[in-house]
Write a structure and sequence with these properties.
Number of domains: 1
Helix content: over 70%
Shape: elongated
Radius of gyration: 20 Å
Structural class: mainly alpha
Strand content: under 5%
Bound molecules: protoporphyrin IX containing FE
Largest sheet: none
Distance between the termini: 67 Å
Length: 233
């Protein structure tokens, strides 16, 4: 009985992990699309960044939902990992777990923690300065030089400046590689957890998952490298 209750609550947590995972994958796709604009057209990137950064629906409704999803996904991931470890008192090394679970599925917690560390750095780089300018200093204009209308928007300039340091670019690239591994297992696993993986779609889901898992981080790597090598002043 106790075992059944434990399993049920574990299934519930896995479904919630999957749902927040789907939401975060959708966020990643829109984040990549907007960031890609910084490579294609600085003006378009500036306009879209200003819209996203000042639109009340994005700022007051969507941004808190995103933050909640990120925190929830990480906390629940750690809880599930601890539960799994408890349920298997014999360590993996003695358990020949490799026979039926892939190396990556057992190490989702490690790739997850690397992504968490990346997010701390990323928030220090972009999100905190953005919150400071807009909501503490109260400058919602988005201008490079506040009060000087023809100075243009500041977003592209700020982004390029962040990718001057090879150390930061290196740290970002390492995190994006771990993101690829996390997504590669997470994509298929999320469909499995919500019961949407069947014998009919298993192979197609695996293929699509692999493409998503590598194309998205590769896109982020390309953006970081592009700005690193094209910054000219
Ligand atoms: C080269 C790659 C990337 C660049 C250039 C980039 C750029 C940015 C910028 C400029 C912001 C500030 C947006 C704002 O608040 O106005 C931001 C926020 C954010 N980024 Fe990234 N990002 C990259 C990769 C990633 C990745 C891989 C993740 C997730 C694993 C991520 C997660 C976030 C989150 C959660 C926020 C806060 C969202 C918000 O402000 O609503 N970013 N990023």
């Amino acid at each position: 009985m106790a075992k059944t209750t434990f399993r049920k609550s574990s299934v519930g947590k896995k479904v919630l992990m999957a749902l927040t995972g789907f939401f975060l994958m959708f966020f990643l796709l829109q984040h990549l699309t907007i960031n890609m604009l910084s490579v294609i057209s600085p003006d378009m990137f500036n306009d879209v960044s200003h819209f996203m950064g000042t639109n009340p629906i994005v700022q007051i409704a969507l941004q808190p939902v995103l933050m909640f999803a990120v925190i929830f996904h990480f906390i629940m991931g750690i809880v599930l990992d601890l539960q799994n470890r408890k349920a298997r008192p014999v360590g993996y090394a003695n358990n020949n777990a490799g026979a039926n679970t892939s190396w990556m599925s057992r190490n989702m917690i490690i790739s997850g923690l690397v992504i968490l560390a990346f997010l701390v750095l990323h928030f220090i780089d972009f999100w905190i300065p953005e919150m400071n300018v807009k909501y503490i200093q109260g400058d919602m204009s988005g201008l490079l030089e506040p009060g000087v209308a023809d100075s243009g928007y500041r977003y592209f300039e700020e982004l390029q400046h962040k990718f001057v340091s090879p150390i930061r670019v290196g740290a970002y690239v390492i995190a994006f590689v771990l993101l690829a591994l996390h997504l590669q297992h997470g994509f298929a696993s999320a469909f499995q957890s919500v019961g949407a993986r069947t014998n009919n779609n298993k192979t197609a889901l695996q293929k699509f998952g692999n493409i998503f898992a590598f194309a998205v981080p590769l896109g982020f790597i390309a953006i970081a490298l592009f700005h690193h090598f094209t910054y000219s002043h």
